[in-house]
Amino acid sequence: MTKAIRIHAHGGPEVMHWEDVPTPEPGPGEALVRHAAVGLNYIDVYFRTGLYKSPLPATIGMEASGTVIAVGDGVTAVAPGDRVAYASAPIGAYATERTIAADRLVRLPGGIDFNTGAAMMLQGMTAQYLLRRTYRVQPGDTILVHAAAGGVGLILCQWAKHLGATVIGVVSTPDKADLARANGAAHVLVGYADLPAEVKRITGGAMVPVVYDSVGKDTFMASIDCLAPLGMMVSYGNSSGPVGAIDVGMLAAKGSLFLTRPSLATYTAKRADLEATCADLFKVVLDGAVTIRVNQTFPLSEAAEAHRALEARRTTGSTVLLP
Ligand code: NDP
Questions:
Q1: Would you give the distance in Å from CA 305 to the centre of its chain?
Q2: Residue of the nearest CA to atom 47 in ligand 1?
Q3: Using an 8 Å Cβ cutoff, are 143 and 174 in contact?
Q4: 191: which DSSP letter?
Q5: CA 180, CA 29: separation in Å to the nearest integer?
Q6: Domain 139-261, what fold?
Q7: Which residues have any ligand 1 atom within 6 Å of their CB?
Q8: What distance in angstroms lies between residue 219's CA and the mean position of ligand 1's atoms?
Q9: Could you identify the atom of ligand 1 that is nearest to the CA of residue 267?
Q10: What distance in angstroms lies between residue 237's CA and the mean position of ligand 1's atoms?
Q11: Number of the ligand 1 atom closest to the C-alpha atom of 41
């Protein structure tokens, strides 16, 4: 048997239960992975509440590291004993063991431990595509990063600074501001009152070419108002709730803006893109340009507590759940 956190209904953290489930057999093209660490991500909250849909009962979670213990027919890319990690649909990572398509697995380099591997795949690959593909940050750019002390946020701050950009971070508390500064943000704003005015002051009126906004509903319009003409609004998350309907004409009125709502799934759908994204991420981590801050760990069986902390904005950096 395997242990897993399962939900039988959508709702608050209390709907998550630690249950016995039969250990799955790897089918053709699949690998059975024994998890060493499971990544906690905001998307797990969306699957728990039902904002993102999945059939019930369900085991949530999209990211983990561990060891391959068996493979199905036709699998040659990984073998039993390999240290691997992944960040991918379908959900099912909140378990001691699971099967997953072998082409979604990447081998972990020797210099990356399991906790770091579980923490970095989803948030780190997200930072990679946001900074290198969605909007390609250039040396000298000044960029705006919301939730700068969060999981994706701390990686964005470090990586953008490494690329030669000046980061304006936005956080909710002075302690988080200190953390964002220590991780590369040159300017940190506490709260989003008067955000466009603050960005105007910091940039001398130029405003920013890109905003990375993971907060959603509460910040969307303020973020739009921080953009320079032809700027890119990257709305990549909904921590405060989903952004509602958009008036497309507003993008013209505000300066011929670009708007995108990207997802990691699209950017890593092809195996070649997954490998290239990971290779870039592993490089900055192994070089020391980016440090994955695993600032909280919880037993996997206490995933509900981890969700409470994440939703109450009590976490910083990355969090892993230990089976
Ligand atoms: P975080 O560690 O960033 O945690 C969420 C943070 O959002 C909080 O710490 C808080 O920071 C901020 N926040 C603002 N408003 C609220 C609110 N009302 N309730 C809760 N938190 C709020 O999480 P992750 O790093 O896991 O994810 C960050 C975001 O990025 C999420 O929205 C996630 O869905 C998105 N994401 C999108 C991906 C994509 O491909 N599109 C991939 C990965 C993540 P503060 O207190 O400083 O305001």
A1: 19
A2: 171
A3: no
A4: S
A5: 42
A6: Rossmann fold (3.40.50)
A7: 41-43, 122-123, 126, 147, 149-153, 171-172, 176, 214-215, 218, 236-240, 262-264, 310-311, 313, 315
A8: 12
A9: 40
A10: 7
A11: 26
How far, in Å, from the CA of 303 to the mean position of ligand 1? 17
Amino acid at 60: I
Q: What pLDDT, in 10s, does the model give residues 252-286? A: 999 999 999 999 999 999 999 999 999 999 999 99
How many helices (H) and strands (E) would you count in the chain?
Answer: 10, 15
Among 214, 233, 311, the mutation site with the greatest number of ligand 1 atoms within 8 A of its Cβ is 214
- Per-residue tokens: 294: 């695993």
In this predicted structure, what is the pLDDT of residue 135? 98
Write down the CATH number for the domain with range 2-121+265-322.
Answer: 3.90.180.10
pTM of the complete model? 0.98
Q: Do domains 2-121+265-322 and 139-261 have the same CATH topology?
A: no
Task: Give the torsion through C-alpha atoms of 44, 131, 250, 256, to 10 deg.
Answer: -160
Domain ranges of the chain: 2-121+265-322, 139-261
pLDDT of residue 193: 85
Can you give the pLDDT at residue 113?
98
- Among the atoms of ligand 1, which is closest to the Cα of residue 241? 18
Low-confidence ranges of the chain (pLDDT < 50): none
**307: Cβ contacts below 8 Å, ≥ 6 apart:** 13, 16, 40, 44, 45, 48
